[in-house]
Amino acid sequence: MLSKLNKFFSSVKLAIFLFIAIAAFSMVGTFINQGDTASQYRTIFGTQTYHVLYWLGFLNIYGSWYFIGLAALLVVNIVTASVNIFPRTLKAVFGPYPSFKEMMDKKSPKAVYEVVESTKNAGETKKVLNEKFGKPFSETETELYYSKNSIFRFSPYIAHLSIIIIIIGVILNVKYGFRSYANIKVGGKTDISYLTKNRKPLNLPFTIRLDDYRTKYYKDGIPKSYTSKISIIKNHVRVATKNIRVNHPFTYDGITIYQASYGHYKPTKVIVGLLVLNLKNRKFRKAIYADVGKLYDAGIDNIKFRFITHKKPKKGEIPFFIKLNNKHIINFHVLPYKNQSTPLVFAKYDNIVFIYSGVKQVKSYYYSGVEITKNSYTSVIWVGSIILIIGLFFSFFFNHREIWVNLTNSKDGKKIQAEILAVPKKKFESFYKDFYKKTAAIKKELH
Amino acid sequence: MISANASALDGSLYFAISLLLVILSFAGYFIFLLTGNKTVSKASFVVLIAAFLIQTFAFVIRWIDAYKIGIDTPPLVDLYDSMVFFAYVIILGFILIRIFYDFDILGFIITIVAALALAFASFSPLAPSAIEPTIPALQSYWLIYHIMTLFVSYGAFGASFGLGILYLIKSGKENKNGGGNKKRGGFVSLLPPSIIIEEAIYKVVVFGLVFLTVGILIGAAWADSAWGGYWSWDPKETWSLITWLTYILFIHARFIKGWGGKKMAWIAVIGFAVVIFCYLGVDLILPGLHSYATPGSTSIL
Fold first, then answer.
1. pLDDT the model gives residue A269
2. B217/A248 touch (CB, cutoff 8 Å), yes or no
3. Position A169 in a domain
4. A324 and A279 share one domain
5. Residue B260 DSSP SS3
6. B38-68 and B106-123 are packed helices; what angle lies between their axes, rounded to 10 degrees?
7. Which residues in chain B have their CB less than 8 angstroms from residue A259's CB?
8. How far does A19 lie from chain B, in Å, by closest CA?
């Protein structure tokens, strides 16, 4: 039972299945947009299809349980397969090496075998063989074992190990890092960003202020650069200011801020223009653009006020009023104004007069979209990547070459018979060509 | 009326000339295929080398032109660039293979692929040759390494595709003839034995796979240093992973009993279809390519 399980988990067939399955699910993810909102999906697919896709996990496929499960199975596959073959590899590299007879008995379909007759004595025969095959790895009276590049038998293990290192790096990165974004308007600041994966807000350990945003263009109107000037504010103190551009992010305190997008904010709310006058001091006048309901300083005698609208205004009544210092309510009055088509609408309290100068749309403004990322443990991924490249390189381009030679006396005892056996790792024509070329040369010299 | 990209200024004229030479070379290989005349194939090879040299010259012209108008990234950014570069790399790959192996007939397939790429670049309205200023996302030193390594791998996979087709033709005929060396059936007899093609497929694929791996990882490192994360599951990235898995499957499938040359040749053929989809299909079909932007705003990447 256990050995059957072991065989299943370590099989190449499982690996092939996993490659196909991972590729297939990845493909699905490229045809269905990932990470959109539920309402976006409903408009694209309709509610029913949306529910089916959601149930299948196709809307967040790379985070779905089965996708992660396939990756986990791949790790199990790599580990069990490696553990199973490793003893064999150790033996091939460090010995004890298989004897000529053992190899002959194996009858490998890849094996090549040649017999060379030598008129020279054993010592000289060996010398000729060594010239062609290199220094023997091990040698007895009648047997020679040549082995070249045996150390590279480890390279596939290194390549597979690197995959596990990369996966570990990814897991650590997902667990301890985050990817988020924030749209900051020019002059504005934020200490909250939104996670890319689920749009949940995240408190940043500092405040980011966008001092300026600029798009530069080439002569023909193609954008040349997008630059945001950002300041990092910590405990009300500006600790850093930096221009960020695409390809040129800024890292502070382990958190990297990238220029990702820009946009145009088109508002839906209105603001109210108010002119504040001081009747005592005629020179005082202050224009305030007020958001409805927000507290403002009138600038006179520390008076603060809000502009508030009536929820259900009565007919003929002015639908808004002013609340002073959260206590007094003062209503607006209408005064027909000479020579003007619009009347003067004002509210008065003591020596303060508020003159209503109309509603206006909030100006649209530009904002800069930044990615705010904590890339923890990416170094693990890069180490894994470098090992992967090295592992692949040596796996593909350096082959272990082994040759066994068995020396026997021919029947009449005058000649020495050298049986040469080679078993390549890969059944390649070039290997056999090379083998026959060498044995032909040996034949010639020993004749 | 289709207007061809043929301006001496941006180098496209020279690419168009090289297209004519590649077609000429293709015609030569076609004649070779019918007649088996070695002189013709040698002449075709020389013409192809000439085409390659003209392309090299064209690239230099194009780069100088880009530099003159104040663009400091190499001309490897738009569809036109990438199509001609693909043709360039695949021809280079064939020239290298041809030097080491007696593989004249591969030239027939390579010249088709290269001619198609060059023709697409020269005539498709989707690929204007005018050098456009580089958008900010691509203004990086990573660009050249990222694209070069990937195109070397694409070229290798293109060659393995050609070899795969030759293998399937050859092994089919060998089986019919009972593995005998009967000199029948015109060009099939010109092919090297299938066992040699099989080895060549493997070698070309692993070469491509190493470069593909390096290219993807450079891309990840670039994305990490510039765009906010090493991997975003964007369609291009995902398809590069699918391509990688296809060739990784090729490497592993050899260890399954009974998966001989024929299945491997099929994987090499299918693998190249995946490469083509990753390279062109994603750009032309799948939306949201390399759009790393935050939701609801203008993407600038």
1. 66
2. no
3. no
4. yes
5. coil
6. 30
7. 300
8. 6
